[in-house]
Fold these 4 entries.
Entry 1:
Amino acid sequence: MITLHHLEQSRSLRILWALEELGVDYQIKHYKRLPTMSAPPELKAVHPLGKAPILTDGDLTVAESAVILDYLQHNYDAENKFKPTNAQDLNQYNYWMHYAEGSLMPLLVMTLVLSLVPPKVPFIVRPLANKIVDGVQDGFTKPRLNEHVEFLEQYLKNNDYFAGEFSFADIQMSFPLIAIQERMGKKYPNIEKFVQRITQRPHYVSAKAKSKD
């Protein structure tokens, strides 16, 4: 039996969504975050790093979103519905599967972490902390993140999905693009249309509901 070890407010929603799209039998084990927003230690009993998502299938434990999606597609996508077969779309599929966490998410995480610094420092040095954070954001993270967002906006201008038809590449890209929409507002119409398109899929809706159980 497939078990998804699902941490609230995490990337594991992507795997839950993929399982819904596949229509396979699975079970969910829910985990709550600690007051610090860290994952609970129980997850380390499943995988030493204690991060989500984690998928277990019999005696096999699989971690990392892209690896889990590849595992599910290879083993359970009997009709090959969620990975393209032609060379051009397959190249795009592989690119976006790695791009999501390799290039885009580090900038989003860095932006989030830096925004949390000033409130954590003593009040007397907070103005200095704000200046340092603003300098890093303005000189490094914001320009690079804006380049990526413009890149994505232009790509989605001519493409409804990331690799031809809907595929697991779209599920992989969903997490950072939804985060961009939430943090940067609706300034990018093509990204907004993509987010609306994927979040209206019935299996996304059912996954979202099950993630809160």
Entry 2:
Amino acid sequence: MNAKPLPRISNSRARRLFLHKHGLLTPPKGSGKGDDLCDVFDQLGFVQVDSINTVARAHHMILAARRPAYKEKNLKLHLERDRLVFEHWTHDASIIPTKFFSHWQLRFDRDRERLIKRWRNWHQNEFEQKLDDVLKRVSDHGPVTSASVGEDENRSSGGWWEWHPSKTALEFLWRTGELSVCRRTGFQKVYDLTERVIPDTHRTTSHDTRETIDWAARSALSRLGFATSGEIAAFWDLISPQEAKTWCQGRLADGTLLEAEIECARGDYRRVFLFPETLAELDDLPEPPSRVRILSPFDPALRDRKRAERLFDFSYRIEIFVPEPKRQYGYYVFPVMEGDRLIGRIDMKAQRDNERLQVRAYWPEPGVRASKGRLAKLEAELQRTARFSGCSDVGFNPDWLRHSNPDP
């Protein structure tokens, strides 16, 4: 007997569903503060933090792409005063709703087991003593930074393998949940006791491993719309690929999950999991707005580069660590979206001394015409980006409008 064919979802519908889940299918509006800002975090799950500030830092650009009225101070209030969000790791450093904090205990426990072996051997017998010393200092004297602990130790600006012992202890205590980031000074993390940062309601709630696996998998899939088990595991980076695979198999068996095939941008199909109710959502998706948006390279819709390439036929990589002569585009180039398409990428920098957002180059994607109407929408978005980054106007290099696919 032949197996029943899986439902197939066209590439257009798959893109629109994915963008809908990421808050990019409807016109951007809302106050970008208070409960409205909480809604953005709930929808996305987390916002990645990044230090690069050529225009604005990634977390601020991600929020502004969905709420043009958003101001950087709004996030500061949520993070530092109201404790509605906290900072920790997903696939990278991220800002996460505090109501999810209790599920991070699984990460704390697993990081403790993993890191203690690595860092104890590295610092030998002094590691446990440093943990006690740093914890006591924070307990007795309040918040610290990596610069304010271990003042008498050798310093290095290198990677973790060159951290001084107290910096290592500080990072370990944060990664394992005993300390939390209470604020940032500039972009430097300031740490305090978790009990003084995370509200009791979220800090004292406990879950067993099974509950957190179910929450992590279910909440990831609801935000992705459709996904493989590997993509589900990678969303929060909180559970293992095998745990996600076992979860999917169990939900498939009890009928609370379906398999389907999504059409990729190049015409091939990929098997994915989704909730049964997601199929019904496909009929009610709004038409994408025609406006142009400039996205952070770390936008949640682009975080998974392979997924973005499959859905949008948009190949993107950060070229920060590529030697300048070998860069295809530029040091830090921003993806450009129109409707439900990624139409190009733009190299720009906020020149804050003269309050100008300077556009060095814009490359449309193959098949995307640089029409007058499209360029007008791009320039309107550039004006919005300039205001958000504290600039009063936009400047253009003489050769800013480029051809598609420059040679490496």
Entry 3:
Amino acid sequence: MVDGVELRHLRYFLAVADELHFGRAAARLHIAQPALTQQIQRLETLLGTKLFDRTSRTVALTPAGQVLRERARPLLGHAARDLAEIARIGEGSQGTLYLGFVPSVLPLEPLRGVREFRERFPLVEVDLVEGYTSHLMEKLATGALDTAIVRDPDPLPGVTTEPLMTEPFVAIVPVDHPFADRTTITGAELADSPMVFFPRAAGSLAHDKNLSPMLESGQRPHIVQEATNWTIILYLVAAGLGITIAPRSATFTAPVSVRIIPLTGTSAATTIYTAHRSDENRALVRNLLALLPNRGVSAAGSSTPSPRP
């Protein structure tokens, strides 16, 4: 019958154990004395033992009652803490959130929302996972991530994406390239230059959008070297292995031995999205998404500083 013991039974018991008087305990609990007496009798029946020795004048704890008084308060304290934790998890203010991101978004606004999220929800642990857009989308679909900040993702069943911001592409050439002194350039003019770029496995849509300034002109890029992140790509360009076309934000850490040239003659742009599972309804995820800035805002019109020419 121990399974029938409820938290309220322990609260009622402690009130009587503290007061050693049913009338005062009932007043403290704001219930009628007969109701309190009935609940204490119910508790004793469930435990199969007397907790109080009662006379017309006195109330005293039995040995079993003394042990219960020592243990009931910690039990209630643990229950209160556990239930409060469950409530915080339910409202999204406690737990662990796995957030994926593509490194090229680091100079932009989205990840700054993570700092505000951590300040607002200090009991939530945010585990950041860096990777290709395609890999992050796969991890979302399998449940390995809760949400992600990705660039031009391919559609994936069961995953919903929402635009955060859009920015232009720029050309990056070595400092000694024939076009290094240009103030603008077209994709067609770059078509004959060897190119350093991402593998298509990083994301087919992102791959094609990034190359679209060339593809729109009917030219096919001549990719001579692939690399796994923009930092490596930019340094390979600086070493003279080729040119590249990149999102503007990817050039903020470019070495001084490259030139960054705005592209003309193209409407191609890249968009950063948040992504989450379509059936995601946890407050933990909603709370983070609500803090990510610049939803739908063009980076070209934001206060983001221009990259070094």
Entry 4:
Amino acid sequence: MQLISIKNTLWYIFKKLSNLGLSISLLLLIASISIIGTIIEQNQSILYYQKNYPINNQLFNQIVNWKIIINLGLDHIYLNPCFMLLLTLFFCSLLTCSFSNQLPKLKNARKWKFFQQDKKTRNKSHITNLETISFPNIIYSLHSSKYYVFHKEKQIYAYKGLSGRIAPIFVHFSMILTLIGCLISLLGGFTAQEIVPKGEIFHIKNIIQSGFNSKLPDNLTGRIKDFDIKYNPDKSIQQFVSNLELYNNESRNIKQKYIFVNSPLIFNGTTFYQTDWRIDSIRLKIGNGNIIQQKAIKRTINKQVFWSCQLPINEKDYIIMIINKLNDNISIYDISNHLLTSVRLNEKIVINSTIFQILEVMTKTGLQIKTDPGIRITYTGFLVLMISIVISYISYSQIWVTSILEHIEIVGSTNRAKLTFEEELINIQEIYTQYTWQ
């Protein structure tokens, strides 16, 4: 009895999972959660959410604030256990629905089904009578319209557009492939963020996300050989570019590329993206020999971004160096915020009888490094989905022909484009009439 109860429970679960309505509901729920993940920035620090989603008296901030985001796990929604459970249920539902519903329907669609009287006649959408009986001519007429024809005694069954019935199976198959690819990427991939000064060597170590089966490339070393910013005529940033070099354990250069946004470097499944940049510090020479390095701080005033650096010139006074753009002049202000001068790199200036020379504006470039082992499977799923969308526009049409007394009755049915199907039936009748009266 216990075994029968277990089997009944499993069968009940199987029937529920194979329900197409459940699959659609799960898909809509997953899409809704994904929209939330698109609106709310993911994988940011708590300080970021506290700043951008504060708690105040406004209605929106009462509904969505940083506490709610952190407590519900909306800051990493795609790794949330509830979201993973939804994906698992959706995957199982697609799989069971494909094998229990879609594949049997396709197999059944390939069988010839000769006409049945009474209630089957009432279910068909198009019924036509022909006064003369000539099965060879009606077979020829159907064949001329690209129908597959089956003849048995005084009955004919014809269909075309069977590929239109394959489209739902392709949709299921594409989603299953996409979910498998995402699962492989989740378990076997990693994402790292690195901020690297120009000219420095770096290793992949700042991991922000990784699967339990992921593996870091321990035989790979990178170096930012150069960094540059391209500006538009209006002095806005057009692009920032890093010259990235990769080395193996023997310090041999194995790959080099200028990377920028939407043009990463890919090597052995590891992708290096250009993500950000910043000014790190200013290196300058004081007098005839002392070279120092001062930290630059990013500031924003009236939505204008600039970097500032303070340099003491005596026990009480200091100067402020302002950098607006990387390749622009450097403005120097006194303690009262009065502009003293503007200089270029390597240009010597004298302040309080001391010679200053700015040698270099030191920059850092931001890199995102990630592996995605399931990306090809995921893209294959997207490709199959696009193909299935095209195939789904193909109409699946069926025609039944039977002789009743001294005339032929034609019954037709289609799943889409009914006006086109009516025109097709008229064309079949015209061909039949033409060859019958010859």
